[in-house]
Each structure stands twice: as C-alpha cells, then as structure tokens.
Design a protein that fits this description.
alpha+beta, three-stranded antiparallel beta sheet, three-stranded mixed beta sheet, 6 helices
Length: 135
C-alpha cells in the first residue's frame, strides 16, 4: 500500500508518525490505540498517546482508516480498503474480516428506496473456531 499517496490524496500532511501509524495498522489488521502506541514507541520513543489519538481521528475523518466499535470492547482501527464486514467472537473478542456483498443486502429491499446509502457496516457475532474447540 502506498500510504504517502493515501495521505496526499486525502489532503493530510505526510509525516513519519502518520506513515508509521498506518504501517502498524496494516501489519496488525485491526489494532487498538494501545497496541498502536506500544508498537510505535519502539520506533518513535518521543511520540505521545495524544499524538496517536489526534492522528487516528484525522485519518478516520479523511477516510484513510476505519474505526470499529465492537460492544464491550475497545475500538479498533483498520485500513479503509474494499468494503467488508466483521466476524466478532463473543468469547475471546477476536475480529476477522469477511466478504459480504453489500449490493445484495441493498437488493433485499430492507432499505427504503428513497434512502440513499453512503456506507454500510455489518458486524456478525458468534463464537470463533478456537473458542468452540475449547468448550
């Protein structure tokens, strides 16, 4: 992924901190603020948690990353790429991407014709295979 280009196209300044935040999110797939902060401290020891938050908010607003808010869990961040949904384990909290055809969902006519859809977010809750094996 070309993070510099993403930042430039979104009108955000290209900084080493932003590039590192995006690399960390990309590497982990779905990361909490604390995970991002802990891993970036090794590269940028002087970075503050406030800087991480401020940059995450800016990049969410610019559409570069998405914030995922599972109930009863800390929010996580992911790179904004092809539309997808999430499988969330109610036991361990793991989060997986799953391809759901958003067009088909709209075709189900559950959404009124006079409502213009700009974005969709679907989270599917259950128990992952690892937790099922343990029980």
């Amino acid at each position: 992924m070309n993070f510099e280009q993403n930042l430039k196209e979104s009108g955000l300044k290209i900084t080493p901190q932003r590039i590192t935040i995006l690399q960390e999110i990309y590497k982990s797939g779905h990361a909490t603020v604390e995970e991002i902060y802990e891993n970036i401290l090794q590269i940028h020891p002087s970075i503050s948690l406030a800087t991480i938050y401020k940059n995450l908010i800016s990049m969410c607003e610019a559409g570069i990353i998405n914030e995922i808010k599972p109930p009863l869990q800390k929010q996580r961040y992911e790179i904004n790429h092809i539309p997808h949904s999430h499988l969330i384990c109610q036991v361990c909290g793991s989060l997986q991407d799953v391809d759901v055809n958003m067009g088909k969902m709209i075709e189900l006519k559950a959404i009124p014709k006079d409502f213009e859809v700009s974005a969709m977010s679907v989270s599917i809750y259950g128990v992952c295979k690892n937790c099922k094996k343990k029980s």
